[in-house]
Amino acid sequence: MALLCRHDRVLWLANMTTAGEKQHYALALIQQLCLHIPDTMRVRLLYDIGCQLECSLHKWNFFDHLLLSRFQFVISMFHAYGHQWPCQVVYHLHKQPSFGLSDGKGCEQLWSALKPLIPPLRVSGVSRH
């Protein structure tokens, strides 16, 4: 999983050691980001399931409410149409101010570029750590 800046440059990567996209990877990346930004900076976070991530953050109090108030969660154009209508109305990328004509495809483009590295770097065997 990766955290990219507005211009699709990699800030941090998380090595996913379990199958599926678990929320703890996103939480770790958000925590890392918060350690490196000013306390007054607003963050607009695009995530495939940004709606669910925001609900989890508020429900389980993973971060301080003051910190969460600085975040705006959004879902990318491609993934928005897989969400229910109320979710699309609130979280769709083009329904939010300050995103311009972004499509939210930065991570997909990164993975496409890194695809040739997958076979030689794949961890195999019983003792994955």
Q: Would you kindly provide a written description of the structure presented here, covering whatever features stand out?
A:
This protein has about 130 residues and is of the alpha+beta class. The protein is built from 7 helices and 4 strands; from the N terminus they run ββαβααβαααα. It has helices at about 25-35, 50-60, 65-70, 75-80, 85-90, 105-115, 120, and strands at about 1-5, 10-15, 45, 70-75. The chain has a two-stranded antiparallel ribbon. The protein has a two-stranded parallel sheet with strand order 3-4. The longest helix is centred in the first third of the chain and has 13 residues, at about 25-35. The chain is globular, with a radius of gyration of 16 Å. The chain starts with a strand and ends in an 8-residue tail after the last helix.
Helix content: 40-55%
Mean pLDDT: 89
Looking at the structure, what is the overall shape? Answer: globular
Taking pLDDT < 50 over at least 5 consecutive residues as the criterion, the unreliable ranges are none
Strand order of the largest sheet: 1-2
Number of strands: 4
First-to-last CA distance: 17 Å
Topology diagram in text:
Blueprint: E1 2-4, E2 10-13, H1 23-35, E3 43-46, H2 50-60, H3 65-68, E4 71-74, H4 77-80, H5 85-91, H6 106-114, H7 118-121
Parallel strand pairs: 3-4
Antiparallel strand pairs: 1-2
List the keywords.
129 residues, alpha+beta, two-stranded parallel sheet, 4 strands, 40% helix, globular
Describe what is shown at a glance:
This protein has 129 residues and is of the alpha+beta class. Helices cover 40% and strands 12% of the residues. The radius of gyration is 16 Å and the shape is globular.
